[in-house]
Design brief:
Elements: E1 27-28, H1 47-53, H2 58-66, H3 70-74, E2 80-85, H4 87-92, H5 98-103, H6 106-114, E3 117-119, E4 135-145, E5 152-157, E6 159-162, E7 165-168, E8 171-180, E9 183-188, H7 199-204, H8 210-219, H9 229-233, E10 241-245, H10 247-264, H11 269-279, H12 297-305, E11 311-312, E12 317-318, E13 333-335, E14 349-356, E15 359-366, E16 383-392, E17 395-400
Parallel strand pairs: 1-4, 2-9, 10-17
Antiparallel strand pairs: 2-3, 4-5, 6-7, 7-8, 8-9, 11-12, 13-14, 14-15, 15-16, 16-17
Helix pairs in contact: 2-6, 8-12, 10-11
Length: 407
Protein backbone atom coordinates (compact mmCIF):
# COMPACT_ATOMS: atom_id res chain seq x y z
CA UNK A 1 0.00 0.00 0.00
CA UNK A 2 1.54 3.31 -1.07
CA UNK A 3 0.03 6.51 0.24
CA UNK A 4 2.30 9.38 -0.79
CA UNK A 5 4.37 9.43 -3.93
CA UNK A 6 7.60 11.12 -2.80
CA UNK A 7 10.36 10.05 -5.17
CA UNK A 8 12.64 13.08 -5.26
CA UNK A 9 11.93 14.73 -1.93
CA UNK A 10 12.96 12.17 0.63
CA UNK A 11 14.96 13.28 3.61
CA UNK A 12 14.38 17.04 3.61
CA UNK A 13 16.74 16.86 6.57
CA UNK A 14 16.97 19.74 8.99
CA UNK A 15 20.46 20.74 10.03
CA UNK A 16 20.32 23.68 12.38
CA UNK A 17 23.42 24.66 14.33
CA UNK A 18 22.76 26.57 17.52
CA UNK A 19 24.87 29.46 16.32
CA UNK A 20 22.75 29.80 13.19
CA UNK A 21 19.62 29.94 15.26
CA UNK A 22 20.81 33.20 16.80
CA UNK A 23 20.20 34.89 13.45
CA UNK A 24 17.20 35.24 11.22
CA UNK A 25 16.10 36.41 7.82
CA UNK A 26 13.90 39.00 9.48
CA UNK A 27 16.05 42.01 8.77
CA UNK A 28 17.48 44.00 11.66
CA UNK A 29 17.33 47.67 10.91
CA UNK A 30 20.55 49.50 10.08
CA UNK A 31 21.60 52.07 12.61
CA UNK A 32 19.19 54.94 12.15
CA UNK A 33 20.63 58.39 11.63
CA UNK A 34 19.98 60.18 14.94
CA UNK A 35 17.64 63.12 14.67
CA UNK A 36 19.34 66.28 15.90
CA UNK A 37 17.38 67.75 18.77
CA UNK A 38 15.34 69.76 18.92
CA UNK A 39 13.63 67.76 16.14
CA UNK A 40 12.39 69.24 12.91
CA UNK A 41 9.08 70.05 14.60
CA UNK A 42 11.00 71.83 17.39
CA UNK A 43 9.30 69.74 20.03
CA UNK A 44 10.64 70.13 23.53
CA UNK A 45 8.01 67.75 24.91
CA UNK A 46 8.99 64.27 26.02
CA UNK A 47 7.01 61.19 25.07
CA UNK A 48 5.85 60.85 28.67
CA UNK A 49 4.67 64.46 28.82
CA UNK A 50 2.86 64.08 25.47
CA UNK A 51 1.06 60.97 26.65
CA UNK A 52 0.10 62.69 29.90
CA UNK A 53 -1.27 65.76 28.10
CA UNK A 54 -3.27 63.93 25.41
CA UNK A 55 -6.41 62.37 26.90
CA UNK A 56 -6.70 59.96 23.96
CA UNK A 57 -3.71 58.14 25.51
CA UNK A 58 -5.07 58.03 29.07
CA UNK A 59 -5.34 54.22 29.06
CA UNK A 60 -1.68 53.83 28.03
CA UNK A 61 -0.64 56.48 30.57
CA UNK A 62 -2.41 54.50 33.30
CA UNK A 63 -0.69 51.30 32.15
CA UNK A 64 2.75 52.95 31.98
CA UNK A 65 2.31 54.47 35.44
CA UNK A 66 1.15 51.19 36.98
CA UNK A 67 4.06 49.37 35.32
CA UNK A 68 6.59 51.96 36.56
CA UNK A 69 7.60 52.91 32.99
CA UNK A 70 6.72 56.62 33.03
CA UNK A 71 10.17 57.71 34.30
CA UNK A 72 11.69 56.14 31.18
CA UNK A 73 9.17 57.86 28.90
CA UNK A 74 9.85 61.20 30.62
CA UNK A 75 13.63 60.84 30.58
CA UNK A 76 15.10 63.53 28.33
CA UNK A 77 18.33 61.53 28.02
CA UNK A 78 16.61 58.42 26.67
CA UNK A 79 15.95 57.72 23.00
CA UNK A 80 12.91 55.61 22.29
CA UNK A 81 10.56 54.23 19.67
CA UNK A 82 7.17 53.57 21.24
CA UNK A 83 4.19 51.83 19.65
CA UNK A 84 1.42 53.51 21.59
CA UNK A 85 -2.13 52.11 21.65
CA UNK A 86 -4.67 54.90 22.04
CA UNK A 87 -7.80 54.48 24.13
CA UNK A 88 -9.75 52.99 21.23
CA UNK A 89 -6.96 50.43 20.76
CA UNK A 90 -7.38 49.31 24.37
CA UNK A 91 -11.13 49.02 23.87
CA UNK A 92 -10.64 46.97 20.69
CA UNK A 93 -8.36 44.69 22.70
CA UNK A 94 -11.00 43.99 25.35
CA UNK A 95 -10.10 46.62 27.96
CA UNK A 96 -13.07 49.04 28.06
CA UNK A 97 -12.06 51.01 31.16
CA UNK A 98 -8.79 52.17 32.75
CA UNK A 99 -9.86 50.67 36.07
CA UNK A 100 -9.24 47.23 34.57
CA UNK A 101 -5.61 48.18 33.93
CA UNK A 102 -4.93 48.81 37.61
CA UNK A 103 -6.31 45.37 38.46
CA UNK A 104 -3.92 43.53 36.14
CA UNK A 105 -1.06 41.73 37.92
CA UNK A 106 2.43 43.15 37.44
CA UNK A 107 3.47 39.92 35.70
CA UNK A 108 1.00 40.76 32.92
CA UNK A 109 1.08 44.55 32.88
CA UNK A 110 4.84 45.19 32.89
CA UNK A 111 5.64 42.85 29.95
CA UNK A 112 2.70 44.28 28.00
CA UNK A 113 3.98 47.86 28.31
CA UNK A 114 7.65 46.95 27.81
CA UNK A 115 6.83 45.06 24.61
CA UNK A 116 5.59 48.34 23.07
CA UNK A 117 8.93 50.11 23.64
CA UNK A 118 12.11 49.97 21.55
CA UNK A 119 14.88 51.42 23.74
CA UNK A 120 17.98 53.25 22.58
CA UNK A 121 16.92 54.07 19.03
CA UNK A 122 14.46 56.22 17.15
CA UNK A 123 12.97 54.55 14.08
CA UNK A 124 10.57 56.31 11.79
CA UNK A 125 8.50 54.63 9.10
CA UNK A 126 11.09 55.77 6.55
CA UNK A 127 13.66 53.52 8.25
CA UNK A 128 11.57 50.38 7.67
CA UNK A 129 12.15 48.37 4.50
CA UNK A 130 9.15 47.36 2.43
CA UNK A 131 10.75 44.04 1.43
CA UNK A 132 9.57 40.64 2.67
CA UNK A 133 9.06 39.72 5.43
CA UNK A 134 9.58 42.57 7.95
CA UNK A 135 12.11 44.23 10.22
CA UNK A 136 13.15 42.95 13.64
CA UNK A 137 13.68 45.20 16.67
CA UNK A 138 14.53 44.26 20.27
CA UNK A 139 11.95 45.53 22.73
CA UNK A 140 12.40 46.62 26.34
CA UNK A 141 11.03 43.24 27.44
CA UNK A 142 13.82 40.93 28.64
CA UNK A 143 12.82 37.35 29.44
CA UNK A 144 16.18 35.84 30.39
CA UNK A 145 19.65 35.52 28.91
CA UNK A 146 20.90 34.05 25.67
CA UNK A 147 22.00 30.41 26.08
CA UNK A 148 25.55 30.20 27.41
CA UNK A 149 25.97 33.98 27.72
CA UNK A 150 25.20 36.75 30.23
CA UNK A 151 23.54 38.75 27.43
CA UNK A 152 19.88 39.62 27.92
CA UNK A 153 17.38 37.85 25.69
CA UNK A 154 14.89 40.56 24.76
CA UNK A 155 11.75 39.67 22.88
CA UNK A 156 11.62 41.29 19.48
CA UNK A 157 8.87 43.02 17.56
CA UNK A 158 8.44 43.19 13.80
CA UNK A 159 7.44 46.44 12.07
CA UNK A 160 6.68 46.44 8.35
CA UNK A 161 5.43 48.78 5.65
CA UNK A 162 3.88 48.26 2.23
CA UNK A 163 2.08 50.53 -0.24
CA UNK A 164 1.19 53.21 2.25
CA UNK A 165 0.24 50.91 5.13
CA UNK A 166 2.32 50.05 8.19
CA UNK A 167 2.14 47.47 10.96
CA UNK A 168 3.85 46.33 14.13
CA UNK A 169 3.64 42.54 13.97
CA UNK A 170 0.13 42.24 12.50
CA UNK A 171 -1.31 45.32 14.22
CA UNK A 172 -1.98 48.31 11.94
CA UNK A 173 -0.15 51.55 12.67
CA UNK A 174 -2.82 54.23 12.35
CA UNK A 175 -0.64 57.29 12.97
CA UNK A 176 3.12 57.02 12.42
CA UNK A 177 6.06 59.28 13.17
CA UNK A 178 4.94 61.56 16.00
CA UNK A 179 8.29 63.04 17.01
CA UNK A 180 9.10 64.25 20.50
CA UNK A 181 12.20 65.38 22.32
CA UNK A 182 13.27 61.87 23.34
CA UNK A 183 11.98 59.76 20.49
CA UNK A 184 9.09 58.89 18.22
CA UNK A 185 5.59 57.48 18.71
CA UNK A 186 3.68 55.27 16.29
CA UNK A 187 0.01 54.98 17.26
CA UNK A 188 -1.29 51.40 16.84
CA UNK A 189 -4.85 50.18 16.36
CA UNK A 190 -4.75 47.52 19.09
CA UNK A 191 -2.48 46.21 21.82
CA UNK A 192 0.62 44.46 20.49
CA UNK A 193 0.63 41.37 22.67
CA UNK A 194 3.96 39.84 23.72
CA UNK A 195 4.28 36.10 23.09
CA UNK A 196 4.41 33.81 26.11
CA UNK A 197 4.92 30.29 24.69
CA UNK A 198 7.30 28.55 22.35
CA UNK A 199 5.92 27.07 19.15
CA UNK A 200 6.27 23.62 20.66
CA UNK A 201 4.12 24.43 23.69
CA UNK A 202 1.53 26.31 21.68
CA UNK A 203 1.18 23.78 18.86
CA UNK A 204 1.26 20.71 21.08
CA UNK A 205 -1.41 22.15 23.39
CA UNK A 206 -3.74 23.02 20.50
CA UNK A 207 -6.52 20.38 20.54
CA UNK A 208 -7.02 20.79 16.79
CA UNK A 209 -3.40 19.95 15.88
CA UNK A 210 -3.07 16.45 17.34
CA UNK A 211 -2.35 14.84 13.95
CA UNK A 212 0.34 17.44 13.20
CA UNK A 213 1.98 16.64 16.54
CA UNK A 214 1.83 12.90 15.77
CA UNK A 215 3.25 13.48 12.28
CA UNK A 216 6.18 15.38 13.81
CA UNK A 217 6.87 12.47 16.15
CA UNK A 218 6.95 10.07 13.20
CA UNK A 219 9.12 12.44 11.17
CA UNK A 220 11.63 12.64 14.04
CA UNK A 221 12.28 8.89 14.10
CA UNK A 222 16.04 8.36 14.13
CA UNK A 223 16.85 12.08 14.39
CA UNK A 224 18.83 13.75 17.20
CA UNK A 225 19.40 17.25 18.58
CA UNK A 226 18.11 20.18 16.56
CA UNK A 227 17.66 17.85 13.60
CA UNK A 228 14.53 16.84 15.49
CA UNK A 229 11.58 19.02 14.54
CA UNK A 230 10.34 18.61 18.09
CA UNK A 231 13.56 20.11 19.46
CA UNK A 232 13.55 22.89 16.90
CA UNK A 233 10.02 23.95 17.88
CA UNK A 234 11.12 24.26 21.49
CA UNK A 235 14.27 26.27 20.76
CA UNK A 236 13.47 29.81 21.87
CA UNK A 237 16.24 31.75 20.13
CA UNK A 238 15.04 31.74 16.54
CA UNK A 239 12.33 32.89 14.14
CA UNK A 240 10.08 30.46 12.33
CA UNK A 241 6.87 30.42 10.33
CA UNK A 242 4.90 27.19 10.50
CA UNK A 243 1.79 26.29 8.51
CA UNK A 244 0.07 23.69 10.69
CA UNK A 245 -2.64 21.56 9.03
CA UNK A 246 -5.55 20.93 11.36
CA UNK A 247 -6.87 17.51 12.30
CA UNK A 248 -9.62 17.57 9.68
CA UNK A 249 -7.03 18.23 6.98
CA UNK A 250 -4.94 15.23 8.01
CA UNK A 251 -7.98 12.97 8.34
CA UNK A 252 -9.09 13.88 4.82
CA UNK A 253 -5.79 13.12 3.13
CA UNK A 254 -5.10 9.99 5.19
CA UNK A 255 -8.57 8.57 4.56
CA UNK A 256 -8.38 9.23 0.82
CA UNK A 257 -4.88 7.85 0.50
CA UNK A 258 -5.54 4.71 2.50
CA UNK A 259 -8.83 4.11 0.70
CA UNK A 260 -7.16 4.43 -2.71
CA UNK A 261 -4.35 2.09 -1.68
CA UNK A 262 -6.75 -0.57 -0.39
CA UNK A 263 -8.82 -0.39 -3.54
CA UNK A 264 -5.64 -0.78 -5.61
CA UNK A 265 -4.89 -3.93 -3.61
CA UNK A 266 -8.27 -5.38 -4.54
CA UNK A 267 -10.48 -4.50 -1.59
CA UNK A 268 -14.10 -3.73 -2.46
CA UNK A 269 -15.32 -0.18 -1.89
CA UNK A 270 -17.24 -0.94 1.31
CA UNK A 271 -14.32 -2.75 2.92
CA UNK A 272 -11.83 -0.13 1.82
CA UNK A 273 -14.04 2.65 3.18
CA UNK A 274 -14.51 0.91 6.52
CA UNK A 275 -10.81 0.16 7.00
CA UNK A 276 -9.65 3.57 5.80
CA UNK A 277 -12.09 5.27 8.17
CA UNK A 278 -10.88 3.21 11.11
CA UNK A 279 -7.19 3.68 10.37
CA UNK A 280 -7.45 7.45 9.83
CA UNK A 281 -9.75 8.14 12.78
CA UNK A 282 -6.93 8.73 15.28
CA UNK A 283 -3.51 10.40 15.20
CA UNK A 284 -2.11 7.04 16.29
CA UNK A 285 -2.20 6.20 12.57
CA UNK A 286 1.38 7.48 12.41
CA UNK A 287 2.47 4.97 15.08
CA UNK A 288 0.64 2.00 13.55
CA UNK A 289 3.30 -0.64 12.69
CA UNK A 290 1.06 -1.97 9.93
CA UNK A 291 1.51 1.35 8.12
CA UNK A 292 5.21 1.89 8.77
CA UNK A 293 6.11 0.73 5.27
CA UNK A 294 3.80 3.40 3.88
CA UNK A 295 4.00 6.23 6.41
CA UNK A 296 7.75 5.98 6.60
CA UNK A 297 9.63 8.52 8.69
CA UNK A 298 11.23 9.83 5.48
CA UNK A 299 7.92 10.36 3.69
CA UNK A 300 6.25 11.98 6.68
CA UNK A 301 9.30 14.17 7.33
CA UNK A 302 9.25 15.43 3.75
CA UNK A 303 5.62 16.44 4.15
CA UNK A 304 6.03 18.03 7.59
CA UNK A 305 9.05 20.19 6.69
CA UNK A 306 7.20 21.47 3.61
CA UNK A 307 5.11 23.41 6.13
CA UNK A 308 8.10 25.37 7.52
CA UNK A 309 9.17 28.49 5.64
CA UNK A 310 12.94 28.68 5.13
CA UNK A 311 15.52 30.83 3.39
CA UNK A 312 19.13 30.36 2.34
CA UNK A 313 21.50 32.84 3.92
CA UNK A 314 24.54 31.19 2.34
CA UNK A 315 24.70 28.17 4.65
CA UNK A 316 21.79 26.13 3.38
CA UNK A 317 18.08 26.58 3.89
CA UNK A 318 17.14 27.26 7.49
CA UNK A 319 13.80 27.93 9.23
CA UNK A 320 14.87 31.50 9.92
CA UNK A 321 11.92 33.63 8.89
CA UNK A 322 8.95 34.98 10.87
CA UNK A 323 6.17 36.26 8.63
CA UNK A 324 2.80 37.56 9.75
CA UNK A 325 -0.26 37.48 7.51
CA UNK A 326 0.26 41.14 6.55
CA UNK A 327 3.75 40.34 5.19
CA UNK A 328 2.55 38.07 2.37
CA UNK A 329 2.05 39.39 -1.13
CA UNK A 330 -1.34 40.21 -2.62
CA UNK A 331 -0.38 38.45 -5.86
CA UNK A 332 0.48 34.71 -6.00
CA UNK A 333 4.09 34.47 -4.82
CA UNK A 334 6.41 31.53 -4.16
CA UNK A 335 7.99 31.04 -0.73
CA UNK A 336 10.72 28.49 -0.10
CA UNK A 337 10.47 25.91 2.67
CA UNK A 338 12.63 23.42 4.51
CA UNK A 339 12.10 20.99 1.63
CA UNK A 340 14.63 23.17 -0.17
CA UNK A 341 17.32 21.94 2.24
CA UNK A 342 17.18 18.62 0.36
CA UNK A 343 15.90 19.83 -3.01
CA UNK A 344 17.23 23.35 -3.51
CA UNK A 345 15.43 23.93 -6.82
CA UNK A 346 11.98 23.20 -5.42
CA UNK A 347 9.75 26.23 -6.14
CA UNK A 348 8.24 26.12 -2.63
CA UNK A 349 4.67 26.93 -1.71
CA UNK A 350 2.45 29.46 -3.45
CA UNK A 351 0.94 32.07 -1.13
CA UNK A 352 -1.45 34.97 -1.53
CA UNK A 353 -3.01 37.42 0.93
CA UNK A 354 -6.22 39.38 0.44
CA UNK A 355 -6.53 42.68 2.30
CA UNK A 356 -9.51 44.73 3.35
CA UNK A 357 -7.92 48.02 4.28
CA UNK A 358 -4.87 47.26 6.46
CA UNK A 359 -6.27 43.89 7.61
CA UNK A 360 -5.79 40.51 5.93
CA UNK A 361 -9.21 38.92 5.34
CA UNK A 362 -7.97 35.86 3.43
CA UNK A 363 -4.65 34.03 3.30
CA UNK A 364 -4.15 30.95 1.12
CA UNK A 365 -1.30 28.59 0.29
CA UNK A 366 -1.07 26.02 -2.50
CA UNK A 367 1.30 23.07 -2.56
CA UNK A 368 3.23 21.67 -5.50
CA UNK A 369 1.42 18.34 -5.33
CA UNK A 370 -2.25 17.47 -4.88
CA UNK A 371 -4.27 14.46 -3.87
CA UNK A 372 -5.36 12.73 -5.91
CA UNK A 373 -2.48 13.63 -8.23
CA UNK A 374 -3.66 16.16 -10.78
CA UNK A 375 -0.59 15.99 -12.97
CA UNK A 376 -0.19 19.76 -12.95
CA UNK A 377 1.74 21.47 -10.14
CA UNK A 378 -0.14 24.02 -8.00
CA UNK A 379 -3.44 23.11 -9.63
CA UNK A 380 -5.26 21.79 -6.58
CA UNK A 381 -7.50 23.82 -4.27
CA UNK A 382 -5.48 26.05 -1.96
CA UNK A 383 -5.25 25.64 1.78
CA UNK A 384 -7.05 28.38 3.67
CA UNK A 385 -5.56 29.84 6.81
CA UNK A 386 -8.30 29.38 9.41
CA UNK A 387 -6.35 30.68 12.42
CA UNK A 388 -3.63 33.19 11.47
CA UNK A 389 -0.77 34.85 13.34
CA UNK A 390 -0.49 32.68 16.42
CA UNK A 391 2.47 34.56 17.83
CA UNK A 392 5.06 32.64 19.84
CA UNK A 393 8.45 33.40 21.36
CA UNK A 394 10.31 31.68 18.53
CA UNK A 395 7.97 32.24 15.64
CA UNK A 396 4.43 32.34 14.38
CA UNK A 397 2.13 29.55 13.23
CA UNK A 398 -0.95 29.59 11.03
CA UNK A 399 -3.53 26.82 11.17
CA UNK A 400 -4.51 25.69 7.64
CA UNK A 401 -7.33 23.46 6.44
CA UNK A 402 -5.36 21.30 4.01
CA UNK A 403 -2.13 19.31 4.04
CA UNK A 404 0.34 20.72 1.50
CA UNK A 405 2.24 18.13 -0.52
CA UNK A 406 5.72 18.93 -1.88
CA UNK A 407 5.30 16.66 -4.89
Amino acid sequence: MKIFKNKNITGAAIFVAAALMMTSCNKKLPQAVPIIYPPANNSTTSIGAAISADTSFSFFKAAAEAAGIMPLLNDSNSLLTVFVPDNDAFRRSGIPDPSIISSLPASVLIPLVEYHIIPGEQFTSADVSASFPNEQLPTDLAVGTLPGTPINFNLTTFPSVRTGAAWDNNIPIVQPDLKFSNGVIHVVAALVQPPSQTLKTAIYSNPNLTYFKAAIARADSGQTGLNRIDSLLGYAVTNMTVLAPNDAAFKTILYGSIYAALRAQGADSATAAQQAGALSSSPTVFQNPALFSVLTATVVRGIVVYHFLATDQGQGFQPNIRAFSVNFATTPTFYTTLVNSAYSNHPGILGQATFTGPVVTKLQFTGFGSFPPSGTPYSGPPANVVSPDNHCINGVYDVIDKVLLPQ
